[in-house]
């Protein structure tokens, strides 16, 4: 694909010309009318812009950072942006290695990047990257120093770096900011030593007391220090609990609260480049395993009550339905009767024998009659319920439906049971007639309901869909 | 036939139309352009919407509901009196009232509308909004993203070219969009947002803080006390920048408490919310790959952007003052109206083309063999901020031997695990039995200009295609549900339009009556009784006169400013 052909212009490095050409073409290719042509046009446009940028750079060679090259190569392929994310991830891991290797000579780096940020902004991503790095290296020792007491680790030797950095600017505002930072870190340390208080979110609200929270530099530094403190705390807790000692963890709700304030999960790559992978894992795995769900009811006002509608599983529909077989239905009825007799009839016949002193045969007859009545009631309830079948029918994979193959209501179900009783009055003749009705029996017809072999219907439906006829 | 543009907001809604002499906002039955998105039922079972309903929220909170937009696209139902309503149905009531206002204003029937939705609304929420329109008797062929609508209004207003950053902080949602405007083309570069961040959250935070301080629980308050507290805090929030150190008299759990609203207090409890607002801004800037120096204008939209704290935060982020010379409350409705006109191919606007993006990643779940306990992995199909309309195919193959079905789950989100993303639906297709990996299905996602998704799955070996069989969508109505909802809503009627002003006045009077004590209470009761008598006589001139007088008196008595 040649972008210039689609845009109907000659290759050029003037973005204004490209935009004008794109606008001209777009008015003939409106996205809602010609979606495919539009996608093509849009890809061509983006590509042309990239090419123009490249030409510009070739004309006046400048330093190009790796990130841009990667992105351009991607654009040239003009595929779906699927790969772009991967590419970005690769880039960030690349910068991760770089920054760790740089950390040794932090002193120089810091000064340079402070200067860089003072200059007018040139490359947003680049700038952010570098400013993040600066802050990372600068706060590393501070945070550890502050948290030394409970982490039992001694890393204090880099202190001079911080001092130097802070001497760079003698802005009183900045000094106040640094003082605030130390104060808050102290509070965090205190709170961490008080295991009973840790898991109460309210206790952490002091973090937002200062308006500096909205200051990028303060927020990032404090967030980083707290992140590290938390990670070490939890790491230690996990280690000691594996040794059998019981120590409190910082619970996920507090981690989520702080994540909300410091956006750790938005700065994953920066945090990984600043701290050990293991330390980061401790926090991020805890954040991952317990996600924070926003309650949609928050803020809702009024109303007597809010009810959550139960999710109704939609019933599947098939193109063809098969009636249940007469014999199988007979077996289902017998199974149901057996079930009821075992559950109720057997005991009741014994009771009748013992209490009313009746002979065994009479007692059995009475309880059997009772079972039949009970069966009718059960059939009514079970067939109208969401199972749409008595236990026997359920085993057979049968379901009772109305003429539209949907579930029947309780009223309809009662009528069905009544029609069944009516046909029973005909005695043996009913059986005989039913044999010739092809699964759609007398009482089914009378009550305009069906007994459907759902299992078979489903299997046949799927088989046909697969094209195996 | 005219198409109207509607801004269906969390707190307020508005409606506009493009006429030959420019965009016009439609006044509602009270003669104002903003209709509070509050719905209620009154004692005789008639519907109450807008200002009247908002007044009734205090004393009749069990039959009135506000801020239900957040429940769009969920399965929650709200009980008003004895009836249950879904957010879709409640929204449709608001839409119906707006539709009637527009019909009265234009004196012709309206059957079609363009409705604005937050850019970060997901597919379920968009579907629900569309259905709300249908329940209100409006054909909704086009949904427009709120920041885009605002940008259209601004772009057309200013005729300026360049990159715009639109920040839309409404009552319940926050949206960020970066757009470029050139040669009549409006191109959205990136959108991001937070569906649970808006002005209501600031009020919520104030209330939580007050209750925490006074050691009270929300559940222990009477509904009326709670609603009253909401109203007082809303008023305090609006006045915070003009009036420092307001003294509020709160009536909680039967005792009266004085509460001083200081700006330090408000600042402290806003900080977490402002920090949350920063995230989508940063993300949109990253996604658009634009340095902040290339942003020509930062535009503020939505009533909550009036908060001075928010403004100064934005100012600090971009080193310049944001602009907001159009009314932030109605600019979205204006933009929606222009889009409606565009759709109608109003000749004056023929030279504007809009391109938008899909604000979130859409994809499907794939089997996770490494760590099955985490659930399926997310396979992105349409990446976020891809320009739309777009249609992308990805192939997946069977994971097991003799697999007979492939279940395609449709997910939206940015997490690598599907369980942390939003499920939009699922679709099961049968495949012939084969050893694993041999059966391939093509999954095609098509995302249209309205932000609605269509899924086609083709089984390559049989060549059969299954489309849009989204079998399960939270909050969506099936045809049967829709018919039932339509029937239910048809039973519910509004009061006659011309009575609305009187009803709003009486509702306000009743609220004031309940809020006051002693002499003042008697006075209000007398005023209301007098007004009732005049209403009975049905002399429109006299009623109008008394109404104006009463309004003036109530304005003096009323210390709240929350509508």
Task: Describe the fold and architecture.
With 469 residues, chain A is mainly alpha-helical. Helix content of chain A is 66%, strand content 3%. Chain A has helices spanning 3-7, 15-28, 35-59, 66-77, 82-102, 106-118, 124-151, 159-168, 172-192, 216-242, 252-262, 268-274, 277-289, 326-355, 360-384, 391-396, 410-425, 428-435, 442-446, 454-465; strands at 301-302, 305-308, 398-402, 449-453. Chain A has a two-stranded antiparallel ribbon. The longest helix of chain A is centred in the last third of the chain and has 30 residues, at 326-355. Chain A is flat and about 110 Å long. Chain A starts with a helix and ends with a helix. The relative contact order of chain A is 0.05. Mean pLDDT of chain A is 73; it is low at 62-166. With 563 residues, chain B is α+β, with helices and mostly antiparallel strands. Chain B folds into 3 domains: 3-197 and 271-356, ATPase, nucleotide binding domain (Nucleotidyltransferase, domain 5, 2-Layer Sandwich); 360-466, Sandwich (Substrate Binding Domain Of DNAk, Chain A, domain 1); 498-558, no CATH class. In chain B, 36% of the residues lie in helices and 29% in strands. Chain B is built from 13 helices and 27 strands. Chain B has helices spanning 51-59, 87-106, 123-135, 146-158, 199-213, 223-239, 263-288, 308-318, 331-343, 479-491, 500-515, 518-537, 540-557, and strands spanning 3-8, 12-19, 22-25, 35-36, 38-41, 47-49, 64-66, 76-80, 83-86, 112-117, 139-145, 162-169, 174-182, 185-194, 246-252, 255-261, 297-301, 353-358, 362-366, 377-382, 386-388, 390-397, 405-412, 422-430, 440-447, 453-459, 464-467. In chain B, a hairpin with a 4-residue loop joins strand 12 (162-169) and strand 13 (174-182). In chain B, 49% of the residues are buried. Classes of the chains: A mainly alpha (469), B alpha+beta (563). Chains A and B meet through helix 2, helix 3, helix 5, helix 7 and strand 1 of A and strand 7, strand 8, helix 5, helix 7 and strand 18 of B.
